[in-house]
Amino acid sequence: MRKVLTIARHEYWVNVRRPDFIIFTSLVPLLGIVALVVSLFFGRQAGGAIVRMFDSGSDVTAVVDQSGGFTPILPRFEEEFVPYGDETEARTALENEEVQRVVVVPDTYLREGEVTVFTEGSRFSGSGTSGLRAFFVAHLVEEIGDETLRARLIDPYDAQVEYVGEQGQASGGAAGQILSFIVPFFFGILLAVTVFVSAGYLVRSVAEEKSSRVIEIVLSSVTPQQLLAGKVIGLGALGLTQILVWIASAAGLGGGLAVLAGILLPLFTRVEVFGLALVYYILGFGVYAVLIGAIGTLGSSFQESQQITGIFIFIAAVPMMLTGVIMTNPDAMVVRVLSWFPLTAPTTMMLRLPLAEAPWTDVAGSIVLLLVTIPVVVWLGAKVFRLGMLMYGKRPGVLEIVRLLRDA
Hints:
Layout: H1 2-16, H2 19-54, E1 61-65, E2 81-83, H3 87-95, E3 101-105, H4 109-112, E4 116-119, H5 127-140, H6 147-154, H7 174-211, H8 214-218, H9 224-252, H10 256-269, H11 271-295, H12 302-321, H13 323-328, H14 333-340, H15 345-352, H16 360-389, H17 398-407
Parallel strand pairs: 1-2, 1-3
Antiparallel strand pairs: 3-4
Organism: Caldilineaceae bacterium SB0661_bin_32
Domain ABC-2 type transporter transmembrane: 21-382
InterPro entries: ABC-2_transporter_component (IPR051449), ABC2_TM (IPR013525)
C-alpha cells in the first residue's frame, strides 16, 4: 500500500504543475469572470432592450373604440391604453411615436370578434398580445355583477402542478421539475469530466513512460497492479482537484453559490438519491479509470492510445446522448438495459434516480454488477497494463491480446 500511495503522490504532483493542466483548470473561472464583467457593463442596456421589446407595460396602446364597449377605459388599464376619437388621429400618434400600437375595434366586434392592429415593426408579440387580451377580457366581463365570477373569468385557474412518482409521492411543481432536469446532469457531467480528464493525463503519463523506457525500471520495483492502482488514485485526485476548483470559482462569482445550492438542495433533502449518486460516482470512476488506463497502454504513441480509449469514452457517454428518452420514460426497456451494463450503468442511474423511483432490482443489480466488475477489471487491467507497457513498435490486435492474456 505504501508503494501505491507513493506512486499516487508522484503522479499527482507531477501533473498538477503541468502548464496545460493549470491553463485548462483556470479557463472556467476566467470565462466566468469575463461573463460577469460583460454582464456588469452591458447587462443594463441589454435588459432595457429586452424590456422594450417584450414588456407591454412599457408601451402605450391607442384604442379606437367604434363599438362603444371599451370606453371609458377601466382605471387599471389607463396607463397602458389611451382612447382616441378616430383612426386617423390614432395613426398620427403612432407615426409621432406617442403610442406603440393602435387597436381599432369595429362596431361588428361582438358579432365577428375581429380587430385591426397597427404597430411598429415586430413589437406586437409576446406579452404585448397577452396584455391586449387581458384588456379585452376585463372590459367584456365588466358588466357581470358577481365580482367573484368576474375575477374567475378573467383568471380561470392557477395550476399548482405536482408530479407524482410510481409509489405515489409528489415530486414538486415546476421548480422541482426544473431541478430534476439539472441535478442528474450535474452528477453525470461531474463523473464524465473527472474520469475523462483524469484518463487523459493517465494515458499521457503511461505513453511518456513507455516511450522513454522508464517503465522497465519502474516495473522492477513494483508490480503492475501497484503501478496501475497508484496512477488511477493519483490522477483521480487530480481530476477531483480540478472539479473542486471549478465549483469554488462558481461559488465565488456572484450568484454562483445560490445556483449550486439550488442544484444540491434537492439531493440533500432526498438522502437516498444523494447517497446512491455518490456510490455510482465512485464505482463508475473505478471501472472507467482502470479500463482506460490499462487499454491506453496498448497504443504505440499518445495519439494512438487516445484513439483506443476513445471507444470507452463513447460508450460511457451513450446515456447522455439518450437523455431525452431517460427523462421522458425512465423505466423504458432500453434505459433498464443500460442500467445493467457496467460501462453505462453509473451514468444511466445518475440520470434516472432524480427523475423517478427506480425499481430496487435495477438499483441493487447494477451496484452488485459494478462491485463484481471492478475486481475483474483490475485483474484483467493489470495483465493488459503489464503487456501493453512492455510492447513496443506496434499495436497488438484483439486476437493477439486474447492469446497473450491466456498465456500470462
